[in-house]
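Exercise 3.2. Students should predict the tertiary structure of the chain below and write it as structure tokens, then compare their answer with the key that follows.

Predict this chain's 3D structure.
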Amino acid sequence: MGTILVLLILAAVVALSIRSMIRDKKKGKSLSCGGNCAECGHCPHSL
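Answer key:
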């Protein structure tokens, strides 16, 4: 019973994560490089 409960919780977390990624993609947000180095704090070219 405990294994099933952990599996359901894990599946819910994964589903919410995917849902959040889809919403961000629709809003134009992205975790990957968008090619705008001037706005990127992680890009070495923005210095």
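Discussion points: The mean pLDDT is 79. The chain has one domain: 2-46.
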